[in-house]
Amino acid sequence: MDYRSLESASTLSTRVALLRELRNLTLLDLAKRSRFPIQRIERIESGEETWLSVSDRQVLARALGVEPMVLKEVEFSPSDYPGVYESKLTPAAVDTDSMAEQILKGYTDINCPRCGTTLKTSIEFAYDMEGSPTKFARAYCPQCPFSLR
Ligand SMILES: [Zn+2]
Questions:
Q1: DSSP string of 114-146, one letter each residue
Q2: What is the mean pLDDT of residues 40-51?
């Protein structure tokens, strides 16, 4: 691997895209390896998601064949720069994984990360990429545009 070009990829989006190309992986390949939805890989590579939770980072780094630090060092977390995201907290900046986990465990009193209203939650049954039955958490806010998809 060419680590010099890696240094020039100084954002999470460019670095993930570069590593994926160096590994000769398509978006779908990476989605399958990491078990992230392909839309999430697209959000990361387009720069909408600028940081990862510890567990997501481990999974994605493993799928890309690098140490988690290689991703962490170019992440941009709102907590590193208080105030930056104050006025535009996006759903991508919310830990949607743990929210989904709570919904699947049956919690219903989950507050909207944007406005604090209690979310409307539901569990949907569907098939994953391998064709196995699986459960998906759904949630939307009755007060603002936030939704968990
Ligand atoms: Zn809301």
A1: TT-PBPEEEEEEEE-TTS-EEEEEEEE-SSSS-
A2: 94
